[in-house]
Amino acid sequence: MLIIAHRGYSAAAPENTIAAFDAALDAGADALEFDVQETAEHIPVVLHDYRLERTTNGHGRVAGTSLAELRALDAGHWFHPRFAGEPIPTLEDTLLHLRDTTAALYLELKAGLSPAAITATAHLLHETYTANRTTIISFDWWALKLIRSLTPVQRIGFLVHTPDEYDGAILRAAQVGNAIVDCHYELLLADAERAEFAHHLGIELAVYTVDDVASARTLADLGVQGVTTNQVTRLRTALATPGLRDGPPPSDHV
Question: In the structure, how many helices (H) and strands (E) does the chain have?
Fold first, then answer.
């Protein structure tokens, strides 16, 4: 089961920053998950929230802020003073930094992105030669449809949070091909037949966001192929060591 670092190693470094991606790779993550928003000029940037206040020293909407203004912000001090000055990376910054790594990439398009930003994302993946190891995931299935119209062979993933969405996502993934379903992990823990349905149709499953060992082991037994986690070291160690109990090792924390 792939260990997918949620927004990078977000228990050890500020989320969605180059520092978090490097920490995840150093900890042995198989894959990196990160979020894409857009600037006022429709340039893709790596940031989760639609607003700046939680993870930067800025204020206001990301989409209402210019790239120059975003580059001047601090995206690290809120997490720990030793990360002061960590910048918000653009998608281009991120892909260039990760181009020579072997990690798989799970790129989440946030809902409501403009066609210009989605088109720019597709172009950047090809220009940086990272498209073939990237899965573009989104709760915005229209965005996934647009990606497929631009790059018909791009691997995509339907993000799902509720039971009502799950069956439709599985059927949609089977219909379009080269697609996964990435769901909230409790959907599968609540009903193992959901995993069986996906396997029956040959659909790969990933889940988010799992930080406890017991749940991760159960999901592995259900045939889940990827688990998104904040606690890279904890799950990497536990899944490789039968019988290890929950408990964060020191490297899970600043």
Answer: 10, 9
* Beta strands in the chain, from DSSP E residues, in sequence order: 2-6, 31-38, 44-46, 104-109, 134-138, 156-160, 179-184, 204-208, 226-229
Between 3.40.718.10, 2.30.29.220, 3.40.50.720, 3.20.20.190, what CATH number should domain 2-252 receive? Answer: 3.20.20.190
Give the count of beta carbons closer than 10 Å to the beta carbon of residue 110: 20
State the Cα–Cα distance between residues 234 and 120, nearest whole angstrom. Answer: 36
* Residue 88 φ/ψ region, left for φ over 0, alpha for ψ in the -120 to 50 degree band, beta for the rest: beta
Within a 10 A sphere around the Cβ of 79, how many other Cβ atoms?
A: 20
pTM: 0.94
User: What count of other Cβ atoms lies within 10 Å of the Cβ of residue 104?
Assistant: 18
Mean pLDDT score of the chain: 95
Give the per-residue pLDDT at 240.
Answer: 83
* Sign of the dihedral defined by the CA atoms of residues 235, 240, 244, 248, in that order: negative
Is 123 considered catalytic here?
no
CB of 183 closer than 8 Å to CB of 197: no
Q: Which pLDDT belongs to residue 44?
A: 98
Give the rounded percent of residues in the chain with a pLDDT score beyond 70: 94
Quick one: pLDDT at residue 242? 59
Q: Which residues of 212-243 are buried (b: 16+ CB within 10 A; e: fewer)?
A: ebebbbbbeebebebbbbbbbbbbbbbbeeee
pLDDT band at 246 (very low <50, low <70, confident <90, very high): very low
